[in-house]
Amino acid sequence: MSDTFPPPPPEQPQPEPEPRYRSAEQVSPWAAPAVPQRKQRTGLIVTLAVAGGLVVAGGTVALVVSTMSAVQDSIALPPRSDAPYSAPYEDETYDEEPVEPAPGPDPEGDVTVATCGRDSLIGWPHADLKIVNRTEGPAAYIVTVSFVDGDGEEVDDGIATTEEIAPGDAVTVRALGSGEVAAGTKCRTGEVERYVP
Q1: pTM score
Q2: Domains of the chain
Q3: Which residue intervals are annotated with compositional bias (Pro residues) in the record (predicted)?
Q4: Are the CB atoms for 111 and 141 separated by under 8 Å?
Q5: How far apart are CA 159 and CA 189, in angstroms?
Q6: Could you tell me the CA-to-CA distances from 70 to 65, 66, 75, 184 in Å, in that order?
């Protein structure tokens, strides 16, 4: 080095050059002042929702368990039998006395066909029966009716029942068929059963 030139000055810190692009954290000098952000409570809400769901599920399970234990005796199955499946069950016997047919004149004479018809919309037959109790006591009736075509062959049948009819009284009941029949179908009484209640 020469004596004529002074030594270089010590190195000075230099300011950093400004970046070409601003980062998202840097605020523009022209931007409005930032509003402070509120704390998010998403974690608290999720925790409360999960805890509430667990409490409801636990309560439901406890309710079902307590209900099942309370009714356990009432829904218990009968004890198992050692009998094989092929063994028939014993017939059950009843102490009730069977209902006997009422004494008196022939019950077929108590029933007459008042009207015989066919429903105009669906074509099902019906018969209106007049039943007169000709016995000396009250009686109930079960009457079967046959619906026959022009050749006399049965195409359908029906049944009519009555409650107790006093002696000498008359009632009218209807027997209905269960299927469509042709026009001109006739009604014929079949078996008549008369019972003393």
Answers
A1: 0.48
A2: 107-195 (2.60.40.10)
A3: 1-16
A4: yes
A5: 10
A6: 9, 6, 10, 64
